[in-house]
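Project outcomes to date are best conveyed with an example. Our students and postdoctoral researchers have been running inverse folding experiments weekly, and each run begins with a structure described purely in tokens. The record below, which covers 216 residues, was selected by the lab manager from last quarter's runs and is presented without edits.
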């Protein structure tokens, strides 16, 4: 006797045909959302866009697509990633700025030290007299005129190093000879006649400069 194959009901056929698939946009939204912790806006923006696209398609798919949770999670993690990146940037910027400021101070110290040595060499060749101005050091005692100036980041203008002329090797040891035109962290780099280079507070610099003016 022949067996009759079971007959599937219409409801069963409908249920078999409607198997919702996970939205690829929702999946990629979560992927970019997680990656935004490393990629910042390059992860956050795709996560947000793909998440919105996924939700729109899922809501309009009449049950053929799923993945609302993935899309929402992608957008949330993307937002958290950009927030964390902003916090890290806020923490790192002062440290980076401090390094930049330190590098500028070191540059000024090196410039002043080079100029002091050049002045002493000039004095050795000219009866102990320092040059009338720093420009006189080029090209016999320095080979690069750019060292005579320093960039002021506030005005974006190259400013010449300050020079206290009229000095000789016999001048008072702690007498100012060269000073940076730019103040960093309330300090100014100065060079004394005896050859030392120091960072001094701006108030101290003005006090010494006033003594120089009074003595001339």
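After processing, the design step wrote out the following sequence:
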């Amino acid at each position: 006797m022949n067996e009759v194959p079971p007959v599937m009901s219409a409801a069963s056929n409908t249920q078999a045909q409607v198997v919702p698939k996970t939205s690829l946009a929702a999946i990629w939204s979560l992927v970019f959302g997680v990656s935004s912790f490393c990629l910042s806006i390059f992860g956050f923006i795709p996560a947000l866009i793909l998440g919105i696209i996924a939700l729109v398609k899922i809501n309009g798919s009449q049950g053929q697509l799923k993945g609302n949770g993935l899309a929402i999670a992608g957008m949330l993690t993307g937002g958290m990633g950009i927030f964390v990146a902003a916090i890290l940037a806020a923490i790192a910027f002062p440290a980076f700025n401090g390094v930049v400021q330190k590098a500028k101070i070191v540059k000024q110290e090196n410039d002043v030290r080079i100029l002091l040595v050049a002045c002493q060499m000039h004095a050795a060749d000219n009866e102990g007299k320092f040059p009338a101005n720093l420009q006189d050091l080029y090209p016999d005692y320095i080979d690069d005129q750019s060292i005579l100036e320093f960039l002021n980041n506030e005005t974006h203008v190259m400013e010449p190093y300050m020079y206290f002329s009229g000095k000789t090797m016999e001048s008072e040891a702690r007498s100012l000879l060269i000073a940076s035109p730019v103040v960093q962290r309330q300090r100014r780099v100065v060079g004394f006649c005896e050859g030392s280079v120091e960072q001094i507070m701006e108030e101290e610099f003005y006090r010494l400069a006033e003594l120089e003016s009074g003595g001339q």
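The first helix runs from residue 10 to 17. The longest strand covers residues 187-192. The training component of this project remains on track.
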